[in-house]
Each structure stands twice: as C-alpha cells, then as structure tokens.
Amino acid sequence: MAYDEHLADRIRERLQDLTDVYEKEMMGGLVFMVNDKMCVGIIKDEMMCRIDRSLHEMLVEKNGCRTMEFTKKPMIGYVLVEESAMRSDVEFNYWIELCLEFNPMAKASKKRSAKKDKHV
To answer: Which helix (H) or strand (E) holds 41?
Structure first.
C-alpha cells in the first residue's frame, strides 16, 4: 500500500492522546477511525478529511484542498488536502480539528470484519 508514512506519523502523533482511535487500511490508503467512525486518512500523499458538509464549498476554495472523488463521483463532506496546505503545524492542526469537530456528528458505517484494524 502506497501512502505517505511521514503524514501517517504526523496524524498518529496528533491523535495519540485520544481514546478509541485505530487505523484501518481502506481505499488504497490508511484511515484513522475515531469512535468507530472514519475521521481522517491518507490517500497517496494527500490527507483525506471528513468534514461537516455545510463547510465543504468554503473549504474547497482554499489552496491545496479539493473534493474527494470515489469511483469518479464527488463525495461532499470529504476533502483531500495537499501537502502544500498543511506544511506548518498550524495548517495541519486546522484540518485535523475540522475532522475531530465533525466526528461526534458523523454517522458510523456498518461494522465489518476488524481483521485488518490496528489500534493506535
């Protein structure tokens, strides 16, 4: 699986003090589940952020941010953030905080086999 290991380490470090966090290989990348809900992840070298749908249009206007597409369909509420938009800790934490703020409101998906899950 090809994803940015440095970015994975940054996310791990940022989420290390939270409870109920685990990693899951998904969509050809790595996803961090918080409270059994997809929260943030990595696809290749971009950070995938699950955010409040009402913020989506505003966020994709920011440099380095775009709508995530899955099977060529736009996924409102999911954005991909390029490295250039999260170089500083302030920028990186901005995106992580958006994900964590939305997480309590996010719907959990149906449980599947936890065979490939790795707790942080």
So the answer is: strand 37-43
Could you tell me which residues come within 8 angstroms of residue 98 by beta carbon, excluding any fewer than 6 positions away? Answer: 49, 51, 52, 55, 59
Q: Amino acid identity, residue 67?
A: T
Cα pseudo-dihedral 116, 111, 103, 62, rounded to 10: 60
For the segment 34-81, what is each residue's pLDDT rounded down to a tens digit?
999 999 999 999 999 999 999 999 999 999 999 999 888 999 999 999
Which structural domains are found in the chain, ordered by start? 5-106 (3.90.1150.30)
Residue 29 backbone dihedrals phi, psi, to 5 degrees: -145, -150
